[in-house]
Amino acid sequence: MDDTICAISTTLGVGAISIVRISGKESINIVDKIFEGKNLHNVESHTIHYGYIVDNKNKIDEVLVTVMKAPKTYTKEDIIEINCHGGIATTNKILELLLLNGCRLAEPGEFTKRAFLNGRIDLIEAESVGDLINSETDKKRKLSLNGVTGSISNLINKIRKALLNINANIEVNIDYPEYEDIEVLTNKEIKPKILKVMEDLDKLLKESENGKIIKNGINVALVGKPNVGKSSLLNTLLEEEKAIVTDIAGTTRDIVEGKIVLNGIVLNLIDTAGIRDTEDIIEKIGVNKSQKIIEKSDLVILVLNYNEKITQKELDLINQLRNKNLIVYINKTDLQKEIDINEIKCENIVLGNTLDIKNLEELKNKIIELFNLEQIETSDFTYLSNSRQISLVRNAKKSLENVLIGIDNGIEVDMLLIDIKECIDYLGEIIGATYKEELLDEIFKNFCLGK
Amino acid sequence: MFFDIIVVGGGHAGCEASHATSKMGFKTALITSNIKNIADMPCNPSIGGTAKGIIVRDIDALGGLMGIIADKSHIQIKMLNNGKGPAVRSLRAQADKVTYPKNMLKALKSTENLKIIEGMVEDIIIENNKVKGIKLENEKIINCNALILTTGTYLKSKILIGDSSKFEGPHGERRSNFLSDKLKQLGFDIIRLKTGTPQRLDRKTIDFSKLKEETGDDTYWAFNCENEFFYDKNKQEKCYLVYTNETTHKIINENLAKSAMYGGYAEGIGPRYCPSIEDKIVRFKDKERHQLFLEPESVYYDDIYLQGFSTSMPKDVQEKMVHSLKGLENAKILKYAYAIEYDAINPLQLKPSLETKIIENLFTAGQINGTSGYEEAAGQGIIAGINAGRKLQNKEPLILKRNESYIGVLIDDLVTKGTKEPYRMLTSRAEFRLLLRHDNADLRLRKYGYEVGLINEEKYHKLKEKEKNIDKLLNELKEEKITKKNITQNILNKINKDDNFNTSISLYDFLKRPEINMELLLNENIIEKKYTNEIYQQVEILIKYEGYIKKELKEVEKLLKLESKKIPKDIDYDKISNLASEAKQKLKEIRPLTLAQAARISGVNPSDLSILAIYLKKEYGKDEL
Asked: What is the pTM assigned to this prediction?
């Protein structure tokens, strides 16, 4: 933490302006060495200065330099931001100069890490900021911002408070067993209270699934026999939306054929045929790779041919997918009908023809309906924004499941507390709250005791 | 005159401390202002209670006196929370206020190496920041190598009843006027605390027929780990329940301005868990009644303690308040409730050994450290005694961990978090209470008592025997398998009908079933009775709660890992950049010994802790961490 770090904080190559950010004790010293303009040592904090970045008197770029002195900065350290002209070569050159003059290249997220270590932000904010930086769409940004302002913290806090209250009540029953006026919580009374909290956690998890959708998009697998029209469906969708046609280099989802944005939500379209064009996905359904694609997808669109009888293998696939989000798209309605639609046990059937845009609307509306995308749009975002938080909530729920098992086995209340406390700890970990003093406060605030 | 160790104050902390040092072979003097007040109980007439009962048990396991003396002196005994899990069961005895001090004095008088001296200590003699002795009020000097202060509430005490106050200790005893000034001079941060005690009523004037009885348990119980009983369970005294009513509340509300606390006559900070009755009525307005207890103080006199009614109202208002209670219409008040204010030191200035950080070989224990309660005092007393002895023996101090004893929790809380109010032990303060049970005190602590010299060979041998038998029985139960065929009809009846365990199951796993217990299996001769009851009880707990115990042990492991990360004594916190200023200030003040202790300091955030950990790694190398 003693060294000074730098990084390009805008996406390289995108946009007219790039920002290079420097944080640490030596920020001003280092930048001053390569800046031609005012002496940065003498300027006020939080001011912007015009000048040039120079390398041995050679002007590299015309820039604006923002000087922010500790502690009122994002990292609580001295920070300098250099706004330069955005070209990859220029920005890299400036970065290189900074490194030569004593900066170290920041690790991913290191600015935020410093902000956290210096007590500028708490853990949940730090994580949300990380998400904010990586957010692609407007909705994602809102979601990340929400984490920063702490609406998740508020919700978790509320759930946690409910548990703390149960906890305090049990503690009082333990420490003051002879006070008859205080409600004695027995397993019977605890059970509905725990169930209520579990319900809240479930809701949060469900909403977080939506949050995940906003962040990561919906993975859509297109499956169907060869020549049934998967590729043309895919292409029509992509052309229609004119969105992200090609996969961005560096994503791990190397099988994504393309992305479209629907109601602000990214759909990652995966054409299973795209893996090995000539092979029949349905033939290969037992094969691991295809299974994995289907497992990974949030939605499967099975394309059938209006003009052909449905095969047993297709029926098997529909049956196998009964617990997944499945849309059956029956293509080629411009041809003679041969298919028996009554055989298809699926609620989401769309008849269509990839040549006709109107039918695509119907497909899109089905997706919107299936994922409640309208609602996601309008609801306020109280989602856990990353997998660490989500898994902590899952753990919290697991603890409560253990409480219920204990209750059913007639375990004494004070033992149940072990799992209740574990749950409180998990939730506390999300919002960085500690348990002990709070509990005592709760006990003495809400219960009347004493000699 | 010279003693190896001097203990100042004959309360519960002083008794345990002086007993421990004498037993360890040190020539010890216990100095008290009045020998009649040795082991005095100026407040409630009970020893033990939730969590506190386990402290008493722990003291006994270490080789202290409180447990066995309470066993010999009580007039009623109860296992609290007996219907709850084994972790929170705790004994409480109504100790006879005449018998208990008498038995304690007898025990101390028969302790080798211990001399009890009457006198008022008003000065400490220090040389090079090291204790050399004390000076009595009559200018007499007694020298020593180590000094333990257990002065209770007697430092500049002030008794408050309504708007009147007196400069004296409990029972009108004289207070120490200069000792706390001396401590202040030496650099101690002196805090002012307050506590209170309710009225004592004349037994003969109470109409008990209107009140609900509270009787002792029908089972024999003991604090001492040998389970020796000294009473007849059929001859226990009764306690009674009383409730406040509308009239009581009206009287209090109308006279609030006259209360010392609400009238602004008191400056000390009182404990949250011991609010005065006026406090309770003001804070919990919608509560229609408050529960009170009548507890006999002794079989030798008529005072009945009115628990729950402590107040700093003037006497005339107290009369009205008491007479408004059902059954107490004609009760005669023998002693009025009073509040007492006294000086204490900031416990953050103590090491976990209870030696002060400022003066070498000076130890403190009990209320002077900011605690409240006989048991809390005694628990610190025995540790201060042991560690004063260990210091003179040039040995490492005995520091009980939070997973080993309530005493460990108590002292760690005090020296790490400090206290703003008199500190009382509660089960909720212990994070590992399933490990800190009443029933396993000897298994947890006897070894330490033996190591320091307070537990003799015979008792230690018994412990080893017990440990061995527990292991043996556990193994036997794991090995022995049963099927439906070789259990009795009585047991089959208990088991769920559609539960078919046709394959064999070990008795160990069988015992895990909620409907099965050790008693049943013993009665039905499925398990052969060849050990003592204690062994079966212990093993049953270990089996039935195995999952929960494992969970706590996992947490303990995390704690111990942090505890093992020692912070060098000479660390310079100013050199650690980026440490938040509050954390820096707290760390400089408390100087925690380990990262675990640092983590428990309020104001030291996880980020401060990781900065500290990184600094330690950088400065002191990998071996330290």
From this structure: 0.76
